[in-house]
Write a structure and sequence with these properties.
GO cellular component, one term: canonical inflammasome complex
Strand content: under 5%
Number of domains: 2
Number of strands: 0
Organism: Poecilia formosa (Amazon molly)
Radius of gyration: 18 Å
Shape: elongated
GO biological process, one term: innate immune response
Largest sheet: none
Distance between the termini: 31 Å
Subcellular location: Inflammasome
CATH class of the largest domain: Mainly Alpha
CATH topology of the largest domain: Death Domain, Fas
Number of helices: 13
Main location: other
Length: 186
Amino acid sequence: MALKKPKVILSDVLENLEQKNYKKFCSALVDRDRNVKRNQVENKDFLDIANVMVNVYDKDTLKVAEELLREICCVKDANNLEIDLWSNRLRVAGPSPVTSDGKHFVDKHRRELINRVGNIGPILDELLDQEVLDNEAYNKINALPTNQEKVRELCTKYLNARMTKDIFYIILKKKEKFLIGELEGN
């Protein structure tokens, strides 16, 4: 499978934004950086905006786009962009979710995750938002009494596909960054 170029990925994301969110994105882009002039984004389509961002931010284009999406409360779009980065192997900063022995990070560190993830609630919320979990699964996991039981249930019954593990890993990197950093150091 061919890797998508950052401009193509960004174009896809911008094309799928609702018009009001697209306008917010363009406004946030101008407000963020003096190198982006208002006349470069006003009344421009998504392809023009992608070109401007690639010219200004180069290798950081997608990271900046992700930050802007979060800033304008398009969290799901930002998370999808982050997932697309992983699946296209374009993520420069940080290790891959696949370890050197070929195992997925979640599989390799399952026991440590079960025992050490401290606050599973916000992680489950984000998994629900990303449609990794449906409401029934979310409620079933949340009804369990301990964090360990919740993480065990999640890992054994709901994280069966690589993409779901990738999403879980990305969320863990945000919500449990010190734990993940420690486990990645092993």
